[in-house]
Amino acid sequence: MDAVKPLAALVARRTELQRQLNELEETYGRQYADAERAGWTEDELTAMDAAPPVRRPRGRPAKKGSRKPAQKPTGGTSAGNTSPSSSASTVPGQQTRSETDAKNASPAGTASQ
Fold first, then answer.
1. Per-residue b or e along 49-86, where b marks 16 or more CB atoms closer than 10 Å to that residue's CB
2. What is the pLDDT of residues 49-89, one digit of tens each?
3. pTM for this structure?
């Protein structure tokens, strides 16, 4: 138990310092924006070691699970395999387009060429 006491004290101190930093960052951001509205440029503020504040994203954060799940592709082909002659997309007993085209080609038509 004695080994954890120094860590617990550091955790408490760290939490308090983080709270103070968050408060300071908020005030810093407002003051920086006030200086910009007063006509100071980012280059001028940076020259006096006033770095631009970290900007928070606007709006409300998205709720977890609010995005629609991805839909599976339709048509019997996967995203990586779009070939209609693939055995993965052929139903047993069903001919592929290339097999059908080969059967429908007339032998007489090919001999006259």
1. eeeeeeeeeeeeeeeeeeeeeeeeeeeeeeeeeeeeee
2. 999 998 777 788 778 776 666 676 666 555 555 555 555 55
3. 0.45
